[in-house]
Amino acid sequence: MLHPQELSLSQIGAVLSQAYGVQVGHVMQRPAGADAGATVYQVTGVDGVRWWLKCRRYAVADGVWNVLRHLRASLGLEEVVAPQPAVDGAPAVLAEGLQWTLFAYVDGHSGFEGALSQAQWQRLGQVLRRVHDAVLPAGLAAGLARPGFDDDTAVERVGAWLQRGDARWPMPDVLAQDYRRAWRQHREQIDGIWQRCGALRERLADQRWSRVLCHGDLHAGNLLLRSDDGLALIDWDDMVLAPRERDLMFVGAGVGGRWGRDDPPGFQAGYGAVVLDPVRLAYYRHWRVLHDLQEFHDLLLEPGAASRPPSQRRQALRYMDEQFAPGNVVDAAARSWSVAARAS
Fold it and tell me: What residues does each domain of the chain span?
């Protein structure tokens, strides 16, 4: 299957012209995150209009796009960024073996690049509470995933790597060797995270909980701070029906060295009163570390990894090391573990 990063200018131009009526003038690949199966491009049309284009090797369910339209049209949540419809009205296009979505360009920078003001934290809290409180029509809710605490592959995959060891990992190039050195350097901590995640999952096994609509990947990089001081919530690919802790754990999780405070000024005032389960918060923060390790592993070692742009793979190595820096996700998970232990 073609990888999104292997698309040529002519391929992108042909698909956008036919599917969206956009005549492409310039295309620039944007710095990628940890998603091993997707690539984002900034597209400028010949008329000067700018767009964001995301191409994926996987397919996001139509139910996600339908819910995004509902949040904007029925609830008036303009901060929720939804894809532009294609010429035939479809929210996504299949071409070159990939799923394509086109978004209006947002003039601003991500939460990784700048701090939120108190007013922006408050508005984020307000928007997120409205998303969590949204009562979806049954037909919309039926199209969304409902993950539990025992059906994710990241825990199993990382556990298998820990148990089998890394001696047989393929080493296609120097960057793969650097990844294995980083893995070995942090292996003891990774093992501790994996064991604690398993223990937390056992505590949640027989617990009942209510589900709300969740963004699913609400780290600072998926929040754009607009030049007019507004907000835009992007990248809803992981939208799920889950406990609200699935989203709220990101405030305080320290992903990317950001949002390390559990009580940023203004957020609680915007979100409102809520009682959170410390065990669920701790589980999600541990699970997130394992999930990202899985993505880094795939970016550095999966078949064809050596053909990816070196910049993306070096970035994955940097992200992996940063996870273990003070105030980042490993620290935040350990802090949550302590709180959950006191709650037992």
Answer: 1-105, 113-344
The tokens 């995270």 sit on which residue? 193
Two structure tokens written together for 116? 């939120």
Q: What is the pLDDT of residues 11-59, one digit of tens each?
A: 999 999 999 999 999 999 876 566 778 889 999 999 999 999 999 989 9
CB 27 within 8 A of CB 62: no
Superfamily of domain 113-344: Transferase(Phosphotransferase) domain 1 (1.10.510.10)
Class of domain 1-105: alpha beta
Smallest CA-to-CA distance from 100 within 14, 160, 175 is with: 14
User: Of 120, 97, 122, nearest to 108 (Cα)?
Assistant: 120
pTM score:
0.94
Distance CA 269, CA 271 (A): 6
Cα separation, 329 vs 234, in Å, equals 21
Number of other residues whose CB lies within 10 A of the CB of residue 155: 20
CA distance linking residue 125 with residue 152, whole number of Å = 28
**Residue appearing with tokens 């284009």:** 53
Distance (Å, rounded) from C-alpha 239 to C-alpha 99?
17
Element (H, E) at 43: strand 38-45
- For residue range 89-113, list pLDDT tens digits in order: 999 999 999 999 999 999 899 999 9
If 0-12 CB within 10 Å is exposed, 13-18 middle and 19+ buried, where does residue 31 land? exposed
Cα(142)–Cα(67) distance, integer angstroms: 11
CA–chain centroid gap for 126, Å, is: 20
Query: Which residues, listed in sequence order, are joined to residue 212 by a DSSP beta bridge?
Result: 242
- How far is CA 126 from each of CA 121, 286, 323, rounded to the nearest angstrom? 9, 26, 29
Are 1-105 and 113-344 equal in CATH topology? no
